[in-house]
Task: inverse folding
């Protein structure tokens, strides 16, 4: 079955960077864009951007431009999201989610289990 | 893109029907059938419930339905069950993704 498995929880200091991984299985990794979405404690969902695993092309939400880098390693069907210059308000659960791969429409299914990133001095 | 507007909370008794609204603009919700809906139980990842405004993925109960009128999309849950108690989020994508603020559904 289609599955996304993310790396474990991280604790980082302000100003540091974090890199979260998302390993895909059960489908052709290069056939579907991968999105990243985050959720601060007690808050709603926030879209961060996507990566095209086939070409490596990316599209980042304006809010994260300059701080986020999405990459992939097709040899191990894994997508990565790196966020730099971390602040306390970056404390959140970070999710990867597979794109629908249907032209003209986007939905997210399935989702990874989430990775808690805590930013604290 | 501004966040889509959802009510903070809705409630209903078992067996009843409830509707959650999701209001955007003519540039997102109003322009395309690109609205999707997600259910999230506490401590769990979101789960796709509706896509392209009104389509249900395989395995999702037909008690869940989606619709749209103008710039407002809606999720209706009929025959409420205790297991439906969760947070629900709408999402629209038009070049970039935007979510609603989420609605907490309480089954009384």
Result:
């Amino acid at each position: 079955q289609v599955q996304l498995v993310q790396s474990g929880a991280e604790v980082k200091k302000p100003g540091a960077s974090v890199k979260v991984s998302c390993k895909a299985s059960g489908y052709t990794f290069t056939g579907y864009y991968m999105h990243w979405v985050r959720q601060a404690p007690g808050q709603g969902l926030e879209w961060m951007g996507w990566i095209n695993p086939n070409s490596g092309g990316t599209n980042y939400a304006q809010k994260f431009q300059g701080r986020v880098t999405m990459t992939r390693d097709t040899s191990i069907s894994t997508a990565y999201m790196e966020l730099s210059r971390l602040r306390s308000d970056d404390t959140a659960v970070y999710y990867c989610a597979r794109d629908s791969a249907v032209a003209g429409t986007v939905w997210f299914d399935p989702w990874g289990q989430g990775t808690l990133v805590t930013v604290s001095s | 893109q501004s966040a889509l507007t959802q009510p903070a909370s809705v409630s209903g008794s078992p067996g009843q029907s409830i509707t959650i609204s999701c209001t955007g603009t003519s540039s997102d919700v109003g322009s395309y059938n690109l609205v999707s809906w997600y259910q999230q139980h506490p401590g769990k990842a979101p789960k796709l419930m509706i896509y392209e405004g009104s389509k249900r993925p395989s395995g999702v109960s037909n008690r869940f339905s989606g619709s749209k009128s103008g710039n407002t999309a809606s999720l209706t849950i009929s025959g409420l069950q205790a297991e439906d108690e969760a947070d629900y989020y709408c999402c629209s994508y038009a070049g970039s993704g935007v979510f609603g603020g989420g609605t907490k559904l309480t089954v009384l």
About this structure: Chain A is about 0% helix and 50% strand. Chain A has a mean pLDDT of 96.
